[in-house]
Design brief:
Domain Peptidase S54 rhomboid: 135-270
Protein name: Rhomboid family intramembrane serine protease
Strand order of the largest sheet: 1-3-2
Distance between the termini: 28 Å
Helix content: 55-70%
Shape: elongated
Domain Rhomboid protease N-terminal: 1-64
Subcellular location: Membrane
Radius of gyration: 22 Å
Largest sheet: 3 strands, antiparallel
Strand content: 5-15%
Pfam families: NRho, Rhomboid
Number of strands: 3
Length: 283
Amino acid sequence: MEPVLVLVAPAGVDLSPLTQRLWAERIAHRVIDQADGQQCLYLADGRHAPQVKQWLEEWQAGQITPLPAEAVEPKLWQGLLQLLATPLSTFILLLLPAVFIWMHFSADWQHWLSAGAEYWPEQRFSLAVYWQLGVWELWRPTLLHFSVLHLLFNSLWWWILARRVEQHEGVMPLLVLLLVCGLIGNMVQWWYAGPAFGGISGVTLGLLGWVGFRQRRRNIDYRIPRMLLPVMVGWLLLTISADTLVPGLSGTAHGAHLGGLISGFILAMLWPVKTVSRDTEFK
């Protein structure tokens, strides 16, 4: 379910009485500060819009005042509602450590690393080989992480970037990015260096390409520093150069990173900008 915009207000307006009421009623929402100086109030579930619209009228009439501190829902509950407002981001964030734990109690995942080994490198230019391997065989190494540091680093970037995309544009674009960037990135990595790789970093680079392009070209404010994209692209080029001079120096899956990044850019260019219905303008 896509977020619904129910209020646009100037930056100086105090929305705390209204947001406290929403938290007290356990209605997931988010206030986003736009670049033009306005505040936008989004509801995670549009079914609450009629009731919230009534509260908006009461608030604008001065009939809703800030609740006493003890009446406001605990921050733990607020955090839980925010997690539920981005279900796909939260699900993958929980799935990655679950797979990591599973890897330490089972050896069933090890054959994931040898997918297509009999074809590489002799047949890596044959499209039939990729078709024969299939989507799941090529995509599933995305879920594998080989150290706690590897898992924490990728999970952090996933949470920062994926949550922003899901909050602003919904579940479907994020799901497409997850599947396409993971698949294309892994295909490029398999072509480039063969099997035996893993990690969701190709997807996170795709998310970075998506966010960076759409912030600059589509004026969507994900609240991510604009310099992050050029810095990470520069770092990617630096590690590729270093591994070219000293093979294996960084231990980085360059094919997955480059394939994911380019896929994210292309999807960002082709995917239409979501138009959000405005239920209430501030008066």
